[in-house]
Amino acid sequence: MNLDYIEAKVFDKCNPIAIGEYENCKFNNCDFSNADFSEFKFVNCEFNSCNLSLTKLNKAVLQGLKFKDCKMLGLLFEKCNPFGLELSFETCNLNHSSFYKLKLKKTTFKNCQLHEADFSECDLSNSVFSTCDLSNTKFENTILEKADLRGSFNFSIDPEINKIKKAKFSASEIKGLLDKYDIEIDN
Predict the structure, then answer these.
(1) pLDDT category, 1, cuts 50, 70, 90?
(2) Is the pTM of this model over 0.85?
(3) Cα dist. 12→17, 38, 47, 156 in Å?
(4) Three-class SS string for 56-98?
(5) How far apart are CA 143 and CA 104, in angstroms?
(6) How far apart are CA 148 and CA 166, in angstroms?
(7) How far apart are CA 159 and CA 5, in angstroms?
(8) Phi-psi region of 178 (alpha: psi -120 to 50; beta: other; left: phi over 0)
(9) What CA–CA distance (Å, rounded) separates 151 from 182?
(10) What's the pLDDT band for 180 if we cut at 50, 70, 90?
């Protein structure tokens, strides 16, 4: 398939966009909910205040993307092309999104809501979860070595089935590592 090539363009309040390769583009206040980005290519692009909920990402290339203030409910990131996958999120709502089996080393999640997200079998080495709400988020056979979860809350991570060596946690939220024992911890 021959994709159109669009470079360094700013898109404001747009919906939809043509299938293509977008490089160094900015998308501001766009509503891409339920869009089909299958086989699109996005390189070094920024999405600001966009709605990407339930967008299809089959074989989409996502390299060097920054998402800020975006609504991204129910995205299946594992459907993306894993080659060069690089993402960062700030103040995004990623509830019900899935990152199953992805290599997301050094990924930043800052001030994000990740209710019922799935990080099963994911490699999150050296990633940062800064002040994130991880309520009912699934960590199963996940690599969290050297990850920084300080300031994040509502997580439940079983150290026996996840790799957490040298990971950083806030003392106030350490109970999230002991949930499976059903014990009470006083402050």
Answers:
(1) low
(2) yes
(3) 11, 21, 10, 39
(4) ECCCCEEECEEEECCECCCCEHHHCECCCCCEEEECCECCCCE
(5) 10
(6) 9
(7) 45
(8) alpha
(9) 22
(10) confident
Give 12 or 172, the one with higher predicted confidence.
Answer: 12
Token pair 């692009």 in the structure block, residue: 45
User: How many residues are recorded in the chain?
Assistant: 187
Question: Strand, coil or helix: what is 63?
Answer: strand
Instruction: State the residue for tokens 């999405």.
Output: 47
CA 44, 85, 100, 174 dihedral sign is negative
HSE-CB at 101 with a 13 A cutoff on CA atoms is 5
Helix, strand, or coil (residue 174): helix
Tokens of 55: 């967008």
Question: How many helices (H) and strands (E) are present in the chain, helices listed first?
Answer: 0, 11
d(CA 77, CA 140): 17
Per-residue pLDDT, averaged over 17-28, amounts to 97
E strands present in 8-81: 10-12, 20-23, 26-28, 41-43, 46-48, 61-63, 65-68
pLDDT in tens, 96-125: 999 999 999 999 999 999 999 999 999 999
- What is the DSSP secondary structure assignment for residue 106, as one 8-state letter? T
* C-alpha span between 42 and 55 (Å, rounded): 14
